[in-house]
Amino acid sequence: FSYAKLCQALRYLLRDGPDCLLVGTNRDHRLPLEGGTAIPGTGCLVKAVETAAQREAFIVGKPNRYMFDCVAGEFDIDPARTIMVGDRLDTDILMGNSCGLTTLLTLTGVTALDEVQGHRESDCPARQSLVPDYYVDSIADLLPALGD
């Protein structure tokens, strides 16, 4: 990604107008790294193009259910027998809940348990949609259950 590529994206979007789709994979602001550091996520790049183009991207990844619907249609997935495991409330857990899946939050990503508790205690439906069904400290905590 560079300023020149941002300019090129804007040229395409202006030239072709609404016929030129603006599609993003996700809106993740940052991605956590070990030791408490982070790097900018794809959402930063999507936002740059959206700002320049003055239009919103269609997001195909989490939390949009588009990707889940594609996979569920292809593989005949039963949401009642499916669990969404993820480390972000605003993408992984929100998508799982909106698709009728059981949700499991791993606390190894960007979400802390006190944030979950705040959403759980809220009367706001939007905040309630971010509450997972279950949580584990680490994805490694699931390994014993996978042996069954």
From TrEMBL:
Keywords: Cell membrane, Cytoplasm, Membrane
Localization of this protein: Cell membrane; Cytoplasm, Cytosol
Organism encoding this protein: Baryphthengus martii (Rufous motmot)
Record-linked Gene3D superfamilies: HAD superfamily/HAD-like
Cellular component terms per the entry's GO annotation: cytosol; plasma membrane
Coiled-coil segments on the chain, per record: none
The protein's name: PGP phosphatase
Membrane topology qualifier: Peripheral membrane protein
Translocase is among the record's keywords: no
Record-linked PANTHER family: 4-NITROPHENYLPHOSPHATASE-RELATED (PTHR19288), GLYCEROL-3-PHOSPHATE PHOSPHATASE (PTHR19288:SF92)
This protein's record includes keyword Membrane: yes
Gene Ontology MF terms in the entry: sn-glycerol 3-phosphatase activity
Primary localization class, coarse: membrane
InterPro entries from the UniProt entry: HAD-like_sf, HAD_sf
